[in-house]
Design goal:
It contains 9 helices and 10 strands. It is of the alpha/beta class.
């Protein structure tokens, strides 16, 4: 069922039964594996070792002693988390049963509830054709319901200026001063230029990218003559999907786009969770947590 036909309370109840309880059993409370590396308080400085995260290099000390040093942080008990949410028209792509927007709402609801249950605060920035709304970070179940309610009330745009994620990321960089955990949730269909603010954001905060996608965006089925419509501009184009060469060009273009996205995330030192409209949310989160846990446990090479 589409999230837009439900109330915030029903969405939270459904996800509590279908997702959160399952995650509790599988992760056994080890939600830090999703957020490792996060810390607010500087604990110490030590000499850089191969394998260390270069985001924690202290460049001032490094320049002074001519040897790279990294900052070490205490693992904080309290987290302030922000959801940077792309609600541009392309998020309304998918099937009758599940749009990318529905995946976004479910993921935000689950993560916000997991965080607030442990006394943490969550806030959100909603982007449509611009940053439409900022929900200040607060704790508690009511805060989760407020965020979900605002997401449901956010109007779906039939057309808008081409998405510019740089605006959303730059707004977050300028306004979120205290080190935080930041989820950037988008399909990353945007004009160029967002890569630099993402990199700057990840130097100050713990940033996780959630890439929303639908299988029909990567490979066209052979279904004859169809009308393709640009979700952002509304421009329409008749295509013949029986043309094998056209389907191949479509697939290759999607692969090139994904290769560029992967490189951008890697250069920004941002871990990415690809989330499909057909994915099981629990399985995706658990696999992502396992990947980050394994990376943390890889010993440094001396």
């Amino acid at each position: 069922m589409s999230s837009s036909t439900q109330t915030p309370e029903r969405i939270l109840q459904r996800l509590d039964w279908q997702v959160i309880r399952r995650l509790d059993g599988i992760l056994q409370g080890d939600y830090r594996s999703l957020f490792y590396g996060f810390g607010l308080d500087l604990a110490d400085l030590r000499e850089y070792e191969p394998g260390d995260d270069i985001r924690y290099i202290d460049w001032n000390v490094t320049a002074r002693v001519n040897t790279p040093y990294v900052r070490q942080y205490f693992e904080d008990r309290d987290i302030t988390a922000w959801f940077l949410l792309d609600l541009s028209p392309s998020e309304d792509f998918g099937t009758v049963n599940s749009l990318k927007r529905d995946c976004l709402i479910d993921f935000v609801t689950v993560m916000a509830r997991l965080l607030t249950r442990r006394g943490n605060r969550v806030g959100a920035m909603l982007y449509g054709s611009r940053v439409e709304r900022v929900i200040p970070a607060r704790g508690g179940r009511l805060q989760v319901l407020r965020i979900v309610n605002d997401l449901l009330k956010q109007p779906k745009l039939e057309r808008s200026p081409v998405t510019d994620l740089q605006v959303l990321l730059q707004t977050a960089f300028n306004s979120i001063k205290r080190r935080s955990l930041i989820f950037v949730i988008s399909d990353f269909i945007s004009t160029p230029g967002w890569e630099r603010p993402l990199r700057l954001l990840s130097q100050r905060h713990e940033v996780l990218a959630i890439q929303l996608w639908d299988p029909r965006e990567t490979e066209l089925p052979d279904i004859g003559l169809v009308i393709l419509q640009d979700a952002e501009t509304g421009e329409q184009l008749y295509v013949d999907t029986r043309d094998r060469k056209f389907r191949l060009r479509f697939k290759e273009a999607a692969q090139r786009r994904q290769t560029a996205l992967t490189a951008a995330f890697r250069q920004s030192h941002v871990d990415v969770l690809p989330l499909s409209t057909e994915d099981d949310l629990v399985r995706s989160i658990v696999q992502f947590a396992a990947m980050r846990r394994q990376r943390k446990q890889i010993p440094n090479v001396k």
